[in-house]
Amino acid sequence: MRAVLQRVSRASVTVEGQVTGEIGPGLMILICAMEGDTDAQADQLAAKIAKMRIFKDEAGKMNLSIRDIGGAALVVSQFTLAADLRGNRPGFSTAAKPEEGKRLYDYFSARLRAEGVPVANGIFGADMDVSLNNDGPVTIWMDV
Questions:
Q1: Which residues are marked as active site?
Q2: Could you give the CA distance from residue 87 to residue 100 in angstroms, rounded to a whole number?
Q3: For the whole prediction, is pTM greater than 0.90?
Q4: Residue 41 forms part of a structural domain
Q5: What is the CATH number of the domain that holds 37?
Q6: What sign does the CA torsion over 124, 3, 103, 25 have?
Q7: Within a domain: residue 144?
Q8: pLDDT on residue 87
């Protein structure tokens, strides 16, 4: 699985004029299930994200996890993270097929909740308007 994490002060997703998910301080997580990804990889990614110390402590050092700060995650499906950029037009054949991608997206969100992180979601496969205030900015790319 592939993810891009952005530390945010707030974030939201709107679909057809309706807010489908929003959070205050925490993480915007753009996630892509790749062809051949497994539940075990989603488990590993959720556990790593829940423990990752990328939030500031009282001394201003990145030493706290999302759980430590009582933050939440906005998880948004993002198949374009699978882009093959060999030509001028990206290809996405390495992304999981939509049915499996949605299953792993939902599974990952559930696993992150099980790790003690409140989760809001976008709508898988929808044309979404994503708004966020990147805090830092801190942006981290992950592949498991």
A1: 78-80
A2: 27
A3: yes
A4: yes
A5: 3.50.80.10
A6: negative
A7: no
A8: 84
Burial of 143 (0-12, 13-18, 19+ CB in 10 A): exposed
* Joined tokens for residue 15: 């679909």
How many structural domains is the chain composed of?
A: 1
Quote the pLDDT of residue 106.
98
What does the alpha-carbon distance between residue 78 and residue 92 come to, in Å, rounded to a whole number? 11
Is residue 93 exposed (0-12), middle (13-18) or buried (19+ Cβ within 10 Å)?
Answer: exposed
Q: Which of 128, 97, 106, 140 is nearest to 21 (CA)?
A: 128
- Walking along the chain (144 residues) 10 residues at a time, the average pLDDT comes out as 98 97 98 98 98 97 98 96 90 95 98 98 95 96 94
**Residue with tokens 């830092």, as numbered in its chain:** 136
- Name the DSSP class of 80: G
B/e letters for 18-52, b = 16+ CB within 10 Å, e = fewer, are eebbebebbbbbbbbbbeebeeebbbebbeebbeb
